[in-house]
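Section 3.1: Structural characterization of target chains.
Under the original work plan, the team committed to producing a structural model for every single-chain target entering the pipeline before any wet-lab resources were allocated. The record below documents one such target. The sequence was received from the expression subgroup and is listed exactly as submitted; it comprises 151 residues.
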Amino acid sequence: MARRPVVRWLTEEQVKPLQVDMNAKPKRKKAGTPERDFQMVAVEYLEMQFRDRIVVAAVVNEAPPKSKNPGSRARFFESRRKAGVKQGFPDLVVFMQFPICFLFEAKSKVGAVRDEQQAMHDKLRALGWEVHVVRTLEDIQAALRAHNLIR
């Protein structure tokens, strides 16, 4: 014979923290950076445009260490370097039907490419890869048009 579930009623004190004040002001969302915001729009656009014919991967290489201790920070950056994190690597890697691959560096309208980013872009270009610094969806569309992927 199946056992009936046990119903436990909560007391008023237990329910109170679970209630939501509908008149309370919502907590402010932490502000993002313009480049990160644009990057999210770019990912959404690419995935909507090509659905299951694309893989878009973000490269997170700017995460700061949690510690302010110089020794801990040095160990943090050294462990990331050993794990293959490359300073200046483009933000997005976009894989499509072989051999099409795009490397996109997302920048705000006024954001500048840093020296280590430029050095990495130059190295990737020397290896035959296309690296695009994109500031708008139109920049992404231009790269896609160059490969006749969109009209």
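The chain has five helices and four strands.
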